Amino acid sequence: MTAEQSAAAEEIGRRASRARADLLAGMSHDLRTPLNAILGFSDLMRREPADGAGEVRVPVDWVEHIHREALRLASLAEDIRDLSRLEGGGLESELELTAVEVLPVATEAVAAVRAFAGGKGHEVALEVPAGEAVVADRGRLLQALRTLLADTIESTADGGRIRIAIDRRGDEFALAVVSTSSRMASEGLALALTRGLVEALHGRLEVESTGEGRVSTITLPA
Amino acid sequence: MTASRPLRILLIEDEAANQALVRAILDRAGRRGLGAHVLHEAGSLAQARAILAAEPVDVVLLDIHLPDGSGLELARELREHPPAVAPRIVMLSGSIPFHEQHAALGADVDDVLPKPFGAAELVGVLRAIADAEPEG
After folding, report:
1. Residues in Cβ contact with B67 at an 8 Å cutoff, skipping those fewer than 6 apart
2. Which of A29, A38, A42, A48 to mutate to test binding with chain B, by most B CBs within 10 Å of its CB?
3. pTM of the predicted model, to two decimals?
């Protein structure tokens, strides 16, 4: 190995460990947000005065918040499991790569996050024509798109606009999720999982900040 | 602080559950000895700037990760160009490392409340600010 090659290898190693540290920091933030709400509301509940029968009356929305945030933690746990399986290579043997029409998958992904998007007053526009297909595993493509959409919605200010568009570039398709006023996400669990899934499908994920918002592009073979 | 003027609080937080939590804590804060207060809420830096331009605020509860940027940007703006009533700035932090907390504390922020925080911690910080306010 030449000196240049070994310097390049060292740089790749440094970048990988930095990416891993960023991911762990992002995961810690992902976990702490729902945990903060669960701990906070349950702490308030146990400090409410009990009646003679030892029962406590609390506002319904406190209980709803605890439940919703606990579901979020459960879904994060699933994401972590999938990410670890991806890294161990356990997922690739299960993949079934076929021609998958994009529109029904994108429609399903939007439907899965719709309630969540509506709650933040977001408008989600699907600009994918019928008939366009990529080579992918349908279930994993859906998971990648759903994860990316949920993350985009979460990082977009209330009342924002999110657009999903598809563009053919040679023998590839670029599926873009474009949002207004979205922060540039630190590489949290959602982006890491999306990237891992897309790379397992022989594609790639690029996320860029446009000043206005964020453009995340999944590129897959046509 | 006299009872005549409520403590004016601006919460800048984009997570609905955490907004609701602060609201709930403040709703029960009378039991912990916090006097009258008014809560303004912003879900982004842009909304926060609009409120700060229109309303005098005594204390800003500031999240770091916001849809349109970092809460630290706003803290710096408020230090460099304070409004007529300069608010105390309390950073609500889920993820900043310890050395950055120190940097933030020294430079642009009066206090840091690490997440997860409970009612006692938040009310404690607000009471200290209310008690330090000049009379009137």
Report:
1. A155, A156, A157, A158, A160, A181, A182, A183, B14, B43, B44
2. A29
3. 0.77
